[in-house]
Amino acid sequence: MSTTAKITNETVARTAEDLSEAVSYDVGAYISEDYARAERDKLWRKVWQQVGRVEEIPEVGNYLTYDILEDSILVVRTAPDKIRAYYNVCSHRGRRLVDTPKGAKRACGKQNHLFVCGFHGWRYNLDGQCTHIPNKDDWKAVLTDERTRLGEIKADTWGGWIWINMEPHSEPLRDYLEPAASLLDPFELQNMRCRWRKWIIFDCNWKVAMEAFAETYHVPGTHPEFTKFGDFRGWARAQGKHSNIGYDAPKGLDENQAKLRLGSGADPRKSTAEMQVYTWEHVNTNTTKTLVDAALRLVDELPEGTPADKVLKHWLDSARRDDAARGVIWPTVDPAHVGKSGTAWQIFPNFQIGHAVNNALCYGARPFGYDPNKCIFEVAVYQLYPKGEEPKAEWEYAQVDDPRWGSVLPQDFSNMAAVQQGMMNGGFRGPLPNPYRERSVANLHRNLAKYMGTGAPRPPK
Ligand code: FES
Ligand SMILES: [Fe+2]
Fold it and tell me: Which of 15, 18, 53, 389 has the greatest count of CB atoms below 10 A from its CB?
């Protein structure tokens, strides 16, 4: 049975209808320090969180750390086929076991056998067991293995990402991720490798940052230059805990590949090439060099007046062939499935996957301390590579005005702090997300309210 068959039409129909009426909700979720503090126990210590890529810890002993508010998690490959996660704290007197290098986003490295605490030298093996305690006899047999080993939490993998959950009674990762997991599996995200990734600290709540990318309604207002390539009507669907967004396929484009789409206008050969070059140069997301080069050849390879569906097919077929010739095999995904999966998934609560058959664009955000007006934000772009030619893209810190962001993402960034300030304005009566195009935003708050016990969306007054 194909994984997608697990998703019944009923599930999709039921969840897709949710939140089709207008709603509003309280701004406390964005601006209240009490709410931000409550998130630690009610949200972050309960949900599955994406903490890194499987390929970042390829060998036994490779580890990385992930910090969320006060909790630091140590993720270790303990066997060729096993990844475990521990609280990153020494059982003796609570020193953080693995330090984050100054200025770095996290720690990432390799310990062949042991983690040694820098304070009194207690040692732990990769399986979290405390294997050496200086003067252990002084405790008179109180120090059992159970009491001294590192505290372990749940860890699992999906889509090439490592996920952790601090809640011992949480549902399994796969169940938590549905229906996103089954709808995304055919895109084989686990085979992609990172082309670039950057992080930043924004002056806004983590929800403001995630929501800025969770809908397409902002495109004409924030990125007006994209409207010349076509006015695509975007949708958003509530999918249980998660949401997805996409564009209605233009009529007649049976080969619709959602994110890999044609430019509009009289000559789609030219507008597609223009849109691809613009995207490559100004955002460096949502496409690959192979796609750009194949788009640039369209004017030479196809006669003027070629209908749009033929242009799309030719472009994608030739790019697929070019990649295959260098050993990069795109998965084949049925256009109907592509249409249903859309262009991006908002994985509750703080991860977005913008997927395509050969590349992906992902966003994540989490609080930066308990200041509700600040967050850590990260962007990572993935694509398929020939085996052995995958780059090792490290996390780079880049300020809002860093030219390496290109020109499009800073347009989104420019809204962040301004939205946060607007939320605090005593005259603001609460958000009014578009019930069709921004349902993903309303759905985030519907699900947040279930965890937080407050802030459920309601009809706007
Ligand atoms: S706190 Fe770690 S050895 Fe003392
Ligand atoms: Fe945007």
Answer: 53
